[in-house]
Write a structure and sequence with these properties.
The complex is a heterodimer of chains A (about 350) and B (about 190).
Chain A (H helix, E strand, L loop, with lengths): L6 H10 L11 H51 L12 E4 L12 E4 L34 E6 L12 E2 L5 E4 L3 E7 L5 E12 L8 E4 L3 E6 L2 E6 L3 E6 L3 E6 L5 E4 L4 E5 L2 E5 L7 H4 L2 E7 H12 L3 E3 L8 E6 L4 H11 L3 E5 L2 E5 L6
Parallel strand pairs in A: 7-8, 17-20
Antiparallel strand pairs in A: 1-2, 3-6, 4-5, 5-7, 6-7, 7-10, 8-9, 9-12, 10-11, 11-14, 12-13, 14-15, 16-18, 19-20
Chain B lengths: L2 H12 L3 H22 L3 H17 L10 H20 L21 H10 L2 H9 L3 H12 L4 H8 L3 H22 L5
Helix pairs in contact in B: 1-2, 2-3, 2-4, 3-4, 7-9, 8-9
The chains are: A alpha+beta (about 350), B mainly alpha (about 190).
Chain lengths: ~350, ~190
Protein backbone atom coordinates (compact mmCIF):
# COMPACT_ATOMS: atom_id res chain seq x y z
CA UNK A 1 0.00 0.00 0.00
CA UNK A 2 1.23 3.45 -0.80
CA UNK A 3 1.87 6.09 1.84
CA UNK A 4 1.57 9.49 0.14
CA UNK A 5 -1.76 11.32 0.03
CA UNK A 6 -3.01 14.34 -1.77
CA UNK A 7 -6.14 16.49 -1.61
CA UNK A 8 -7.78 14.74 -4.56
CA UNK A 9 -7.39 11.33 -2.98
CA UNK A 10 -8.49 12.71 0.37
CA UNK A 11 -11.63 14.06 -1.20
CA UNK A 12 -12.52 10.75 -2.85
CA UNK A 13 -11.75 8.75 0.27
CA UNK A 14 -13.81 10.97 2.51
CA UNK A 15 -16.72 10.85 0.09
CA UNK A 16 -16.77 7.07 -0.19
CA UNK A 17 -15.68 6.28 3.34
CA UNK A 18 -19.12 5.53 4.69
CA UNK A 19 -20.88 5.08 1.40
CA UNK A 20 -23.70 2.58 1.55
CA UNK A 21 -26.48 1.59 -0.83
CA UNK A 22 -29.52 -0.40 0.13
CA UNK A 23 -29.95 -3.37 -2.11
CA UNK A 24 -33.22 -3.79 -3.92
CA UNK A 25 -33.07 -7.53 -3.64
CA UNK A 26 -32.39 -9.92 -0.81
CA UNK A 27 -30.03 -12.59 -2.03
CA UNK A 28 -29.25 -14.16 1.30
CA UNK A 29 -31.23 -17.34 0.69
CA UNK A 30 -29.35 -17.96 -2.52
CA UNK A 31 -26.05 -17.23 -0.80
CA UNK A 32 -26.85 -19.57 2.08
CA UNK A 33 -27.93 -22.34 -0.29
CA UNK A 34 -24.72 -21.95 -2.30
CA UNK A 35 -22.64 -22.19 0.90
CA UNK A 36 -24.51 -25.32 1.95
CA UNK A 37 -23.94 -26.87 -1.45
CA UNK A 38 -20.27 -26.28 -0.95
CA UNK A 39 -20.43 -28.23 2.32
CA UNK A 40 -22.34 -31.00 0.56
CA UNK A 41 -19.74 -30.93 -2.22
CA UNK A 42 -17.04 -31.45 0.39
CA UNK A 43 -18.87 -34.45 1.80
CA UNK A 44 -19.43 -35.77 -1.70
CA UNK A 45 -15.74 -35.30 -2.43
CA UNK A 46 -14.82 -37.54 0.49
CA UNK A 47 -17.28 -40.17 -0.67
CA UNK A 48 -15.92 -39.96 -4.21
CA UNK A 49 -12.37 -40.30 -2.87
CA UNK A 50 -13.32 -43.37 -0.82
CA UNK A 51 -15.09 -44.81 -3.85
CA UNK A 52 -12.08 -44.27 -6.10
CA UNK A 53 -9.73 -45.84 -3.54
CA UNK A 54 -12.06 -48.85 -3.24
CA UNK A 55 -12.27 -49.23 -7.01
CA UNK A 56 -8.49 -49.01 -7.33
CA UNK A 57 -8.01 -51.61 -4.59
CA UNK A 58 -10.44 -53.95 -6.33
CA UNK A 59 -8.62 -53.33 -9.62
CA UNK A 60 -5.21 -54.09 -8.14
CA UNK A 61 -6.54 -57.20 -6.41
CA UNK A 62 -8.17 -58.44 -9.61
CA UNK A 63 -5.00 -57.86 -11.61
CA UNK A 64 -2.95 -59.68 -9.00
CA UNK A 65 -5.45 -62.55 -8.94
CA UNK A 66 -5.50 -63.02 -12.71
CA UNK A 67 -1.74 -62.69 -12.94
CA UNK A 68 -1.36 -65.51 -10.41
CA UNK A 69 -3.81 -67.76 -12.25
CA UNK A 70 -1.94 -67.11 -15.49
CA UNK A 71 1.40 -67.93 -13.87
CA UNK A 72 0.06 -71.19 -12.47
CA UNK A 73 -1.32 -72.26 -15.85
CA UNK A 74 1.93 -71.43 -17.59
CA UNK A 75 3.86 -73.44 -15.06
CA UNK A 76 1.52 -76.41 -15.45
CA UNK A 77 2.15 -76.46 -19.15
CA UNK A 78 5.84 -75.78 -19.32
CA UNK A 79 7.50 -77.09 -16.22
CA UNK A 80 7.84 -80.28 -14.36
CA UNK A 81 7.10 -80.43 -10.69
CA UNK A 82 9.66 -78.24 -9.10
CA UNK A 83 11.92 -78.83 -6.21
CA UNK A 84 13.14 -75.90 -4.18
CA UNK A 85 16.64 -76.18 -5.56
CA UNK A 86 15.64 -76.65 -9.18
CA UNK A 87 12.91 -74.08 -9.49
CA UNK A 88 13.60 -71.54 -12.18
CA UNK A 89 11.03 -69.08 -10.96
CA UNK A 90 12.93 -68.41 -7.82
CA UNK A 91 13.42 -64.84 -6.82
CA UNK A 92 16.39 -64.32 -4.56
CA UNK A 93 16.73 -61.58 -2.06
CA UNK A 94 19.09 -61.21 0.88
CA UNK A 95 17.85 -61.57 4.43
CA UNK A 96 19.31 -60.21 7.63
CA UNK A 97 22.96 -60.16 8.44
CA UNK A 98 24.52 -62.83 10.53
CA UNK A 99 27.08 -60.82 12.42
CA UNK A 100 29.23 -59.42 9.74
CA UNK A 101 27.74 -58.44 6.42
CA UNK A 102 30.89 -59.42 4.60
CA UNK A 103 30.78 -62.87 5.99
CA UNK A 104 27.16 -63.67 5.27
CA UNK A 105 25.45 -65.13 2.33
CA UNK A 106 21.96 -66.05 3.29
CA UNK A 107 19.26 -65.97 0.66
CA UNK A 108 15.55 -66.42 0.61
CA UNK A 109 14.27 -68.14 -2.47
CA UNK A 110 10.62 -67.52 -2.96
CA UNK A 111 8.23 -69.04 -5.44
CA UNK A 112 5.94 -66.65 -7.24
CA UNK A 113 2.81 -67.78 -5.47
CA UNK A 114 1.97 -67.20 -1.83
CA UNK A 115 2.16 -69.86 0.82
CA UNK A 116 -0.96 -71.91 1.29
CA UNK A 117 -1.30 -74.22 4.18
CA UNK A 118 -5.05 -74.46 4.28
CA UNK A 119 -6.56 -77.55 5.68
CA UNK A 120 -8.42 -78.47 2.51
CA UNK A 121 -5.14 -79.23 0.83
CA UNK A 122 -3.78 -81.34 3.64
CA UNK A 123 -4.13 -85.05 3.40
CA UNK A 124 -6.70 -86.34 5.84
CA UNK A 125 -4.33 -88.89 7.40
CA UNK A 126 -1.68 -87.70 9.78
CA UNK A 127 1.68 -87.51 8.08
CA UNK A 128 4.38 -89.76 9.44
CA UNK A 129 7.86 -90.23 8.09
CA UNK A 130 7.49 -94.01 8.21
CA UNK A 131 4.38 -93.97 6.05
CA UNK A 132 5.39 -91.10 3.79
CA UNK A 133 4.47 -91.96 0.22
CA UNK A 134 6.46 -90.95 -2.82
CA UNK A 135 3.76 -88.50 -3.88
CA UNK A 136 3.87 -86.89 -0.47
CA UNK A 137 7.46 -85.98 -1.10
CA UNK A 138 6.55 -83.88 -4.08
CA UNK A 139 6.64 -80.19 -3.40
CA UNK A 140 3.52 -78.92 -5.08
CA UNK A 141 3.40 -75.78 -7.11
CA UNK A 142 2.34 -72.63 -5.36
CA UNK A 143 4.13 -73.08 -2.07
CA UNK A 144 6.92 -70.93 -0.78
CA UNK A 145 10.32 -72.42 -0.23
CA UNK A 146 12.71 -70.44 1.89
CA UNK A 147 16.37 -71.16 1.44
CA UNK A 148 19.00 -70.43 4.04
CA UNK A 149 22.57 -70.70 2.86
CA UNK A 150 25.81 -69.88 4.61
CA UNK A 151 29.00 -69.16 2.77
CA UNK A 152 32.41 -70.62 3.41
CA UNK A 153 33.32 -67.49 5.30
CA UNK A 154 30.38 -67.80 7.64
CA UNK A 155 31.27 -69.69 10.78
CA UNK A 156 28.89 -69.29 13.66
CA UNK A 157 30.80 -70.38 16.65
CA UNK A 158 30.96 -67.48 19.03
CA UNK A 159 28.27 -65.29 17.55
CA UNK A 160 25.88 -67.98 16.49
CA UNK A 161 23.00 -66.66 14.45
CA UNK A 162 19.75 -68.43 15.04
CA UNK A 163 17.50 -68.01 12.02
CA UNK A 164 13.83 -68.32 12.71
CA UNK A 165 11.79 -70.38 10.28
CA UNK A 166 8.24 -69.31 9.41
CA UNK A 167 6.89 -71.93 11.85
CA UNK A 168 8.93 -70.38 14.69
CA UNK A 169 11.45 -73.21 14.72
CA UNK A 170 15.03 -72.01 14.86
CA UNK A 171 17.98 -73.19 12.83
CA UNK A 172 21.69 -72.60 12.72
CA UNK A 173 23.22 -73.05 9.30
CA UNK A 174 26.94 -73.78 9.53
CA UNK A 175 29.38 -72.63 6.92
CA UNK A 176 29.05 -74.08 3.42
CA UNK A 177 25.62 -75.39 4.34
CA UNK A 178 22.13 -74.88 3.05
CA UNK A 179 18.55 -75.47 4.16
CA UNK A 180 15.40 -75.29 2.07
CA UNK A 181 12.34 -74.94 4.24
CA UNK A 182 8.89 -75.63 2.83
CA UNK A 183 5.48 -75.72 4.46
CA UNK A 184 4.10 -78.40 2.17
CA UNK A 185 0.53 -78.73 0.98
CA UNK A 186 0.60 -82.30 2.23
CA UNK A 187 0.56 -80.88 5.72
CA UNK A 188 4.08 -81.30 7.03
CA UNK A 189 7.07 -79.02 7.42
CA UNK A 190 9.92 -80.01 5.21
CA UNK A 191 13.58 -79.11 5.52
CA UNK A 192 15.97 -80.24 2.79
CA UNK A 193 19.50 -79.93 4.03
CA UNK A 194 22.98 -79.97 2.67
CA UNK A 195 25.87 -79.54 5.07
CA UNK A 196 25.75 -79.01 8.80
CA UNK A 197 22.57 -77.64 10.31
CA UNK A 198 21.25 -77.45 13.82
CA UNK A 199 17.49 -77.44 14.39
CA UNK A 200 15.41 -76.43 17.35
CA UNK A 201 12.03 -77.60 16.18
CA UNK A 202 8.79 -76.01 17.27
CA UNK A 203 6.51 -78.88 18.12
CA UNK A 204 3.26 -79.03 16.16
CA UNK A 205 1.40 -82.33 16.08
CA UNK A 206 -0.67 -81.29 13.09
CA UNK A 207 2.34 -80.42 11.00
CA UNK A 208 5.18 -82.87 11.55
CA UNK A 209 8.68 -81.59 10.91
CA UNK A 210 10.58 -83.85 8.51
CA UNK A 211 14.22 -83.31 7.62
CA UNK A 212 15.26 -84.64 4.23
CA UNK A 213 18.90 -85.70 4.22
CA UNK A 214 20.78 -87.28 1.36
CA UNK A 215 20.32 -90.83 2.67
CA UNK A 216 17.46 -90.66 5.12
CA UNK A 217 14.48 -88.72 6.37
CA UNK A 218 14.10 -87.75 9.98
CA UNK A 219 10.86 -86.79 11.71
CA UNK A 220 11.64 -84.68 14.73
CA UNK A 221 9.40 -83.37 17.49
CA UNK A 222 10.11 -80.42 19.75
CA UNK A 223 13.78 -80.97 20.10
CA UNK A 224 17.32 -79.94 19.44
CA UNK A 225 18.83 -81.81 16.59
CA UNK A 226 22.11 -81.52 14.73
CA UNK A 227 22.69 -83.09 11.37
CA UNK A 228 25.47 -83.23 8.82
CA UNK A 229 24.30 -84.37 5.44
CA UNK A 230 26.37 -84.87 2.33
CA UNK A 231 26.61 -87.37 -0.48
CA UNK A 232 28.74 -89.72 1.57
CA UNK A 233 26.55 -89.95 4.64
CA UNK A 234 24.05 -88.28 6.91
CA UNK A 235 25.45 -87.95 10.40
CA UNK A 236 23.19 -86.76 13.16
CA UNK A 237 23.00 -86.27 16.89
CA UNK A 238 19.81 -85.84 18.86
CA UNK A 239 20.34 -83.47 21.75
CA UNK A 240 16.81 -83.29 23.13
CA UNK A 241 13.38 -84.69 22.29
CA UNK A 242 12.61 -87.56 19.96
CA UNK A 243 13.42 -88.35 16.36
CA UNK A 244 12.52 -91.11 13.97
CA UNK A 245 14.91 -91.92 11.17
CA UNK A 246 13.90 -93.76 7.98
CA UNK A 247 16.55 -94.84 5.51
CA UNK A 248 15.70 -93.89 1.94
CA UNK A 249 16.78 -97.13 0.30
CA UNK A 250 16.51 -99.84 2.92
CA UNK A 251 13.46 -98.27 4.61
CA UNK A 252 15.17 -99.16 7.89
CA UNK A 253 13.56 -97.30 10.79
CA UNK A 254 15.46 -96.15 13.84
CA UNK A 255 14.24 -94.17 16.84
CA UNK A 256 16.79 -91.79 18.24
CA UNK A 257 17.11 -91.08 21.95
CA UNK A 258 18.67 -87.87 23.34
CA UNK A 259 22.43 -87.93 23.15
CA UNK A 260 22.39 -90.69 20.56
CA UNK A 261 24.17 -90.29 17.23
CA UNK A 262 23.56 -92.04 13.93
CA UNK A 263 25.17 -92.38 10.59
CA UNK A 264 23.15 -93.14 7.48
CA UNK A 265 24.94 -93.97 4.27
CA UNK A 266 24.24 -96.06 1.19
CA UNK A 267 24.37 -99.27 3.18
CA UNK A 268 21.95 -98.34 5.94
CA UNK A 269 21.82 -96.81 9.39
CA UNK A 270 24.51 -97.40 12.01
CA UNK A 271 24.67 -96.11 15.54
CA UNK A 272 27.69 -94.03 16.48
CA UNK A 273 29.25 -94.57 19.87
CA UNK A 274 30.22 -90.98 20.30
CA UNK A 275 28.85 -87.65 19.11
CA UNK A 276 30.37 -86.62 15.80
CA UNK A 277 32.97 -83.94 16.06
CA UNK A 278 31.12 -81.79 13.50
CA UNK A 279 28.65 -80.88 16.22
CA UNK A 280 31.16 -80.01 18.92
CA UNK A 281 30.20 -76.33 18.71
CA UNK A 282 26.80 -77.49 19.93
CA UNK A 283 27.55 -80.63 21.96
CA UNK A 284 30.81 -79.21 23.32
CA UNK A 285 32.36 -82.63 22.87
CA UNK A 286 35.25 -83.70 20.65
CA UNK A 287 36.23 -87.34 20.48
CA UNK A 288 39.43 -88.72 18.98
CA UNK A 289 40.72 -92.20 18.69
CA UNK A 290 44.19 -92.22 17.27
CA UNK A 291 43.24 -89.29 15.08
CA UNK A 292 45.71 -87.12 13.21
CA UNK A 293 46.42 -83.74 14.77
CA UNK A 294 45.50 -82.43 11.35
CA UNK A 295 41.86 -83.43 11.88
CA UNK A 296 41.92 -82.06 15.46
CA UNK A 297 43.13 -78.68 14.19
CA UNK A 298 40.52 -78.83 11.42
CA UNK A 299 37.72 -79.54 13.91
CA UNK A 300 38.85 -76.74 16.19
CA UNK A 301 38.77 -74.32 13.27
CA UNK A 302 35.38 -75.51 12.07
CA UNK A 303 33.72 -75.59 15.47
CA UNK A 304 35.32 -72.73 17.35
CA UNK A 305 36.84 -70.52 14.65
CA UNK A 306 40.19 -71.14 16.27
CA UNK A 307 43.13 -69.56 14.51
CA UNK A 308 46.12 -71.82 14.92
CA UNK A 309 49.63 -71.62 13.44
CA UNK A 310 51.96 -74.61 13.54
CA UNK A 311 55.65 -73.81 13.43
CA UNK A 312 56.41 -77.32 12.29
CA UNK A 313 54.27 -78.90 9.57
CA UNK A 314 55.12 -82.39 10.80
CA UNK A 315 53.05 -81.80 13.92
CA UNK A 316 50.01 -82.43 11.72
CA UNK A 317 51.16 -86.02 11.35
CA UNK A 318 51.04 -86.74 15.06
CA UNK A 319 48.15 -88.76 16.41
CA UNK A 320 45.90 -88.10 19.36
CA UNK A 321 43.42 -90.13 21.34
CA UNK A 322 41.13 -88.57 23.88
CA UNK A 323 38.01 -86.51 24.49
CA UNK A 324 37.59 -82.80 24.95
CA UNK A 325 34.49 -81.78 26.85
CA UNK A 326 35.36 -78.10 27.13
CA UNK A 327 34.48 -75.47 24.59
CA UNK A 328 37.34 -73.25 25.71
CA UNK A 329 39.78 -73.40 22.84
CA UNK A 330 42.75 -72.46 25.02
CA UNK A 331 42.05 -75.36 27.40
CA UNK A 332 41.63 -77.80 24.54
CA UNK A 333 44.90 -76.77 22.92
CA UNK A 334 46.66 -76.85 26.26
CA UNK A 335 45.49 -80.42 26.81
CA UNK A 336 46.51 -81.39 23.27
CA UNK A 337 49.96 -79.80 23.37
CA UNK A 338 50.72 -81.15 26.83
CA UNK A 339 49.83 -84.62 25.68
CA UNK A 340 51.99 -84.31 22.57
CA UNK A 341 54.78 -82.48 24.43
CA UNK A 342 54.44 -79.40 22.31
CA UNK A 343 54.76 -75.75 23.26
CA UNK A 344 51.69 -73.53 23.12
CA UNK A 345 51.66 -69.73 23.05
CA UNK A 346 49.15 -67.08 22.01
CA UNK A 347 49.69 -63.79 20.29
CA UNK A 348 47.02 -61.39 18.97
CA UNK A 349 44.32 -64.05 19.29
CA UNK A 350 46.31 -66.60 17.26
CA UNK A 351 47.54 -69.79 18.91
CA UNK A 352 51.10 -70.80 18.07
CA UNK A 353 52.20 -74.43 18.45
CA UNK A 354 55.88 -75.32 18.36
CA UNK A 355 57.73 -78.51 18.89
CA UNK A 356 58.83 -81.69 17.34
CA UNK A 357 56.56 -83.21 14.72
CA UNK A 358 55.87 -86.83 13.87
CA UNK A 359 56.62 -88.94 10.85
CA UNK A 360 53.77 -90.36 8.89
CA UNK B 1 -21.57 -3.81 15.45
CA UNK B 2 -18.65 -3.92 17.88
CA UNK B 3 -15.67 -6.19 17.56
CA UNK B 4 -16.83 -8.57 20.28
CA UNK B 5 -20.16 -9.05 18.57
CA UNK B 6 -18.37 -9.58 15.26
CA UNK B 7 -16.16 -12.19 16.86
CA UNK B 8 -19.18 -14.11 18.14
CA UNK B 9 -20.88 -13.96 14.75
CA UNK B 10 -17.75 -15.18 12.97
CA UNK B 11 -17.48 -18.07 15.42
CA UNK B 12 -21.10 -18.98 14.80
CA UNK B 13 -20.60 -18.68 11.01
CA UNK B 14 -17.70 -21.11 11.25
CA UNK B 15 -20.23 -23.54 12.73
CA UNK B 16 -22.49 -22.92 9.73
CA UNK B 17 -25.02 -20.89 11.75
CA UNK B 18 -27.58 -19.44 9.36
CA UNK B 19 -28.68 -16.68 11.73
CA UNK B 20 -25.10 -15.42 12.14
CA UNK B 21 -24.52 -15.46 8.39
CA UNK B 22 -27.70 -13.52 7.74
CA UNK B 23 -26.74 -10.99 10.38
CA UNK B 24 -23.34 -10.43 8.78
CA UNK B 25 -24.91 -10.23 5.34
CA UNK B 26 -27.50 -7.66 6.40
CA UNK B 27 -24.87 -5.61 8.23
CA UNK B 28 -22.32 -5.40 5.47
CA UNK B 29 -24.43 -5.72 2.32
CA UNK B 30 -25.16 -1.96 1.85
CA UNK B 31 -21.52 -1.04 2.23
CA UNK B 32 -20.38 -3.77 -0.12
CA UNK B 33 -22.92 -2.82 -2.75
CA UNK B 34 -21.62 0.75 -2.66
CA UNK B 35 -18.06 -0.53 -3.11
CA UNK B 36 -19.12 -2.80 -5.92
CA UNK B 37 -20.95 0.03 -7.68
CA UNK B 38 -17.75 2.04 -7.87
CA UNK B 39 -16.28 -0.71 -10.02
CA UNK B 40 -19.36 -1.73 -11.91
CA UNK B 41 -21.73 0.70 -13.54
CA UNK B 42 -24.51 -1.79 -13.96
CA UNK B 43 -26.38 -2.24 -10.68
CA UNK B 44 -27.46 -5.78 -11.46
CA UNK B 45 -23.85 -6.77 -12.15
CA UNK B 46 -22.77 -5.00 -8.95
CA UNK B 47 -25.32 -6.99 -6.95
CA UNK B 48 -24.15 -10.21 -8.59
CA UNK B 49 -20.58 -9.36 -7.62
CA UNK B 50 -21.63 -8.77 -4.02
CA UNK B 51 -23.59 -12.02 -3.96
CA UNK B 52 -20.61 -13.95 -5.27
CA UNK B 53 -18.38 -12.18 -2.75
CA UNK B 54 -20.62 -13.14 0.19
CA UNK B 55 -20.65 -16.78 -0.95
CA UNK B 56 -16.85 -16.67 -0.91
CA UNK B 57 -16.91 -14.95 2.48
CA UNK B 58 -19.00 -17.68 4.10
CA UNK B 59 -17.18 -20.50 2.35
CA UNK B 60 -13.83 -19.23 3.51
CA UNK B 61 -14.87 -17.79 6.88
CA UNK B 62 -12.81 -20.51 8.59
CA UNK B 63 -9.71 -18.83 7.17
CA UNK B 64 -10.60 -15.47 8.72
CA UNK B 65 -8.13 -14.85 11.52
CA UNK B 66 -9.58 -11.81 13.31
CA UNK B 67 -6.84 -9.60 11.90
CA UNK B 68 -8.18 -6.22 10.84
CA UNK B 69 -11.87 -5.61 10.78
CA UNK B 70 -14.35 -8.03 9.32
CA UNK B 71 -15.69 -5.23 7.11
CA UNK B 72 -12.35 -4.54 5.45
CA UNK B 73 -11.81 -8.32 4.93
CA UNK B 74 -15.18 -8.61 3.17
CA UNK B 75 -14.47 -5.42 1.23
CA UNK B 76 -11.24 -6.92 -0.13
CA UNK B 77 -13.16 -9.97 -1.26
CA UNK B 78 -15.75 -7.76 -2.98
CA UNK B 79 -12.98 -5.84 -4.79
CA UNK B 80 -11.32 -9.12 -5.84
CA UNK B 81 -14.66 -10.36 -7.18
CA UNK B 82 -15.12 -7.09 -9.07
CA UNK B 83 -11.65 -7.43 -10.59
CA UNK B 84 -12.38 -11.06 -11.55
CA UNK B 85 -15.59 -9.87 -13.14
CA UNK B 86 -13.69 -7.20 -15.05
CA UNK B 87 -11.10 -9.72 -16.25
CA UNK B 88 -13.92 -11.85 -17.60
CA UNK B 89 -15.66 -8.96 -19.30
CA UNK B 90 -12.78 -6.84 -20.58
CA UNK B 91 -12.09 -6.83 -24.26
CA UNK B 92 -9.28 -4.32 -24.56
CA UNK B 93 -6.47 -3.17 -22.36
CA UNK B 94 -5.58 0.47 -22.43
CA UNK B 95 -1.85 0.76 -22.67
CA UNK B 96 -1.11 4.37 -21.92
CA UNK B 97 2.29 5.73 -22.50
CA UNK B 98 3.58 8.43 -20.25
CA UNK B 99 4.95 10.28 -23.28
CA UNK B 100 1.55 10.41 -24.91
CA UNK B 101 -0.10 12.15 -22.00
CA UNK B 102 -0.94 15.66 -22.89
CA UNK B 103 1.39 18.26 -21.57
CA UNK B 104 -1.40 20.46 -20.37
CA UNK B 105 -2.19 19.32 -16.86
CA UNK B 106 -5.17 20.72 -14.97
CA UNK B 107 -4.15 22.78 -12.03
CA UNK B 108 -4.14 20.87 -8.79
CA UNK B 109 -6.83 21.11 -6.12
CA UNK B 110 -6.33 23.46 -3.29
CA UNK B 111 -7.97 23.00 0.08
CA UNK B 112 -10.73 25.48 -0.57
CA UNK B 113 -11.64 23.91 -3.88
CA UNK B 114 -11.49 20.46 -2.28
CA UNK B 115 -13.97 21.50 0.41
CA UNK B 116 -16.25 23.15 -2.10
CA UNK B 117 -16.27 20.12 -4.35
CA UNK B 118 -16.97 17.92 -1.38
CA UNK B 119 -20.00 20.02 -0.61
CA UNK B 120 -21.23 20.37 -4.16
CA UNK B 121 -20.81 16.80 -5.32
CA UNK B 122 -22.92 14.12 -3.72
CA UNK B 123 -21.44 10.66 -3.34
CA UNK B 124 -23.80 9.41 -6.00
CA UNK B 125 -22.77 12.11 -8.44
CA UNK B 126 -19.12 11.42 -7.80
CA UNK B 127 -19.71 7.69 -8.25
CA UNK B 128 -21.39 8.37 -11.56
CA UNK B 129 -18.47 10.53 -12.64
CA UNK B 130 -16.07 7.72 -11.78
CA UNK B 131 -18.25 5.24 -13.62
CA UNK B 132 -18.12 7.44 -16.72
CA UNK B 133 -14.39 6.88 -16.92
CA UNK B 134 -13.10 4.14 -19.22
CA UNK B 135 -13.21 0.77 -17.41
CA UNK B 136 -9.48 0.36 -16.87
CA UNK B 137 -9.06 3.99 -15.71
CA UNK B 138 -11.90 3.46 -13.28
CA UNK B 139 -10.29 0.37 -11.75
CA UNK B 140 -6.88 1.99 -11.49
CA UNK B 141 -8.35 5.13 -9.95
CA UNK B 142 -10.49 3.20 -7.46
CA UNK B 143 -7.64 0.96 -6.43
CA UNK B 144 -5.04 3.72 -6.20
CA UNK B 145 -6.91 6.75 -4.92
CA UNK B 146 -9.60 5.11 -2.78
CA UNK B 147 -8.38 1.63 -1.75
CA UNK B 148 -4.78 2.81 -1.39
CA UNK B 149 -2.99 0.18 -3.50
CA UNK B 150 0.38 1.04 -5.04
CA UNK B 151 0.89 1.01 -8.82
CA UNK B 152 3.04 -2.11 -8.43
CA UNK B 153 0.21 -3.90 -6.66
CA UNK B 154 -2.34 -2.66 -9.19
CA UNK B 155 -0.12 -3.88 -12.01
CA UNK B 156 -0.18 -7.35 -10.50
CA UNK B 157 -3.89 -7.36 -9.73
CA UNK B 158 -5.01 -6.05 -13.11
CA UNK B 159 -2.24 -7.88 -14.97
CA UNK B 160 -0.90 -4.70 -16.53
CA UNK B 161 2.49 -2.99 -16.35
CA UNK B 162 3.23 -0.79 -13.39
CA UNK B 163 3.94 2.08 -15.79
CA UNK B 164 0.57 1.51 -17.45
CA UNK B 165 -1.15 1.72 -14.09
CA UNK B 166 0.71 4.95 -13.37
CA UNK B 167 -0.20 6.59 -16.67
CA UNK B 168 -3.78 5.27 -16.50
CA UNK B 169 -4.11 6.89 -13.13
CA UNK B 170 -2.72 10.21 -14.31
CA UNK B 171 -5.21 10.29 -17.15
CA UNK B 172 -8.12 9.09 -15.01
CA UNK B 173 -7.35 11.66 -12.37
CA UNK B 174 -7.10 14.44 -14.89
CA UNK B 175 -10.36 13.45 -16.53
CA UNK B 176 -12.23 12.98 -13.29
CA UNK B 177 -11.02 16.29 -11.94
CA UNK B 178 -12.16 18.02 -15.11
CA UNK B 179 -15.56 16.37 -14.88
CA UNK B 180 -15.84 17.14 -11.18
CA UNK B 181 -15.16 20.77 -11.88
CA UNK B 182 -17.61 20.73 -14.77
CA UNK B 183 -20.34 19.22 -12.58
CA UNK B 184 -19.65 21.49 -9.67
CA UNK B 185 -21.85 24.52 -9.29
CA UNK B 186 -18.97 26.85 -8.88
CA UNK B 187 -16.06 26.52 -11.16
CA UNK B 188 -12.54 27.39 -10.26
Amino acid sequence: MKQDKDLFEELLQSKFKDDTIISSRDNFNQIFDAVQNKSDDKKLFYWYAIGIILLMSIGVFTLYYFKNIKTTKEKEVTTEISTPTENKNLVSKPVDSVYNKNEKEITVDTLVQPIQTNKENQIPNKVDVTTLRAEDEIIEKGVITITYTASSKYASTEKTKYNQLPDSSTIVVRKNSKVNFTATKQGFRRADINGIVFFNVKDNENQPFIIFGKHCKIQVTGNSFAIHSNTKADIMTLIQGTAKVVHNKTKQIKDLTPGESLKANNNGITTLKKAPNQFAWKTKELNYDNALVNSVIQDLGDNYDAKIILKNRDILNCRYSGTFTDDNIANILKELTTSLKLKLSKKDGIFLIEGKGCDL
Amino acid sequence: MNKQEQGKLVKACKKNDRYAMEKIYNTFMPRMLAVSLRYCKNRSDAEDIVQEAFIKVFKSIKKYKDQGTLGSWIERIVINCAIDHWHKMKKTVLVDNAELIEEREPHELNEIEQQELAKQLSTEKLRNLINDLPEQYKYVLNLYAIEGYSHKEIGKILKIKESTSRSNYTRARKKLLENMRAKGIKKY
